[in-house]
Here is the input.
Amino acid sequence: MRPGSRGEVVLCAVLVLIALGWIVTGLRTDSGELHEAPVVLVGPDVVTAPLVKQVNAVPGHPFTAGGVDDPAEAADLLESGDVVAALHLDLSGTRDELRIAAAHRPELAREIHAEVTRIEKTRGRTVALAPTDDRHEERSWGPLTFATALAGFLLVCIVSLVWGPLARTLPRLLARLTALAALAVGAGVWGWLLAAPTPAGERVLTASILAATVLAAGALTFACEVIGGLPGLLFAAAVIVAGPAPLVVAGDRLLLSGAWAIGSRWTIAGAAESLLWAVETRTGIAQPVVTIVGSALLGLVVLVATRWLVRGLVAPDGERVSVSGWRTTLGLVLVSATCLTVLATALTSALHAETVPRPLPSLASTTQCVPSGPVEDVDDLNRITRLRAEPALQGGDVGVSATLADGRSIWMFGDTLRAKELPGAGFVRNSMLLVEPDCLRVVLPESGGAIIPDRGDGVGYWPMSVTTLDKPGYALVVVAAQRVRTTSKDVFGFEALGPAIAQFVVPDGGVPQLIAVTDVGADDADTRRPMWGAAAAVSGEWLYLYGTAREPDPELGTGFSLRVARVEPDHVADPDRWTYWDGAGWGRRPGAASELIPAADGVSQTLSVFERDGRWYAFSKSGEFLGDDLVFWTSPSPTGPFRAQPPVGTLPSGVARGELRYMPLAHPDILEEPGSVIVSYSRNSTDFGAVLRNPLLYRPKFIRVDLPRG
Here is the structure.
């Protein structure tokens, strides 16, 4: 073997390894999964905004999501090709509709449907696939364009076997071009037949694209052969045959990732596939046209130029390379290219067969009715708190509530004791209860844990207030919570790190589903920073969020001060949209918020603020945990001034006896009567063992108190 031939073989082997590396790495990165497919969620901004963030954060980034509230706008985005799918949220139920662009690749459509179904399942929802134009359902251009490009490459190989690697005469050059043109015409006729029964204009475009693909592949192969000889021809095989392999098998560049998605688009087969779909979407034609036309022109220019610039292929010793010797080396190229294609197909099948869907945490929730009997007065409320039939809520504190438009009420509890046989047994940081006529329903997440799940670092959420926003067919429930970290096993071994907003969608008569949890501000245990959402109330077009704060080391019996922020309810999860009352107006600086109630003999950290007949009431235990007096502060407006009224009752804690009574809260929507309001307070024991033996020690108590007059 001549030294030059030995070098060619080594170079060919390197090219084969590079091509195989491209395929293997590309397919392992791909695994047939979606990568950043552009989609749009269609629904109210308050719901789609947090869901968009969650979809974009799904491991592997299958989607790049956006949100719109106008179905017509979503339809325009689909029509223009800006998105490949639109998910229309039906918030009055749990079945959403998925619409995929009419000019879609079947592989992509299947993957989108499967991935959306998998994500929706984690929230207890299902997906209905909207019908599309049947003529697009089974069309897959990738194998067609690959076969067409391969035909152009093989034509050059056949011509080289017959006439040698270089057109030494003008008739030979014309013969090569004629053969390439004839194959292009044949590909065009094939495309015309395959495109039936589309309109004539689309059939002409399809035929033209396939013809141009043959020309580009053949011309580029001619150029590589002339310039590089055997390695050049093998380079053409790698680019034309191996390059688009991941794209052809995956079915769409959105099923590839990173460099493989971009690189495969710049191959001739990949560009032709994109251009064929662009015929139907009328978008994205510039790049594939440049690739195909540029490849064809480059090849033709090189082919024609070498006819005059190089009169023969000359070896280093000055002798011409014989045609018979060229046939031997060309056979090596064909064998290498064939092995490359077979290996690519085998690797593709194996790697795609091993695809395992990425696990996603489930946020789905369910309920089960516990018969409660009618609830008509305070005695009935206390009766149902003594029910023992629900193992998922054996005991809990806080107990904030709000009424839904469908007549049910929703309750949130803090640290909740659950039966040992349940998943997430023991205490969970929060739980939810639906109260309806004759029935109590604990809303239990699939994991069995807290309904607002703990963060990955173990920080949990204690609910502080609940508000509901009525929408057509559903309610948006906003739960303001405080982030809590355990510091010791002592009953007081915790620290509050800041507020958070949890949002639930509750279809009329349906099960609440968590859509978002947003931490407000960085973790910080400084109690001088207001805990926004300690109380909340909706009035007119505003949601008022009250914050409590105090000095880190207050004197015994000192309570919390009270401040207020407001926001449009649909933007509650965006703290940048909040404004704060500074005593004269609303501003953007949280630090400028003025005190509505001072800390001296102030409110508890969590309290109730509500409006009744045009008058505003703040209800709490004066002096926080160790105080005794139940007090209303009254005001003509949500921004104060709030003035303390005479106590309406006492609530001694009884710490010396191991009894804890704390966190009185008002429930103005429950069993409403003029001149009075239902209130509850939490009960607990300093003896944790006693609570485990008798969970009734750890349940709220209800009383009715009179509203202050005057």
User: Anything to note?
Assistant: Residues 200-242 form the longest helix (43 residues).
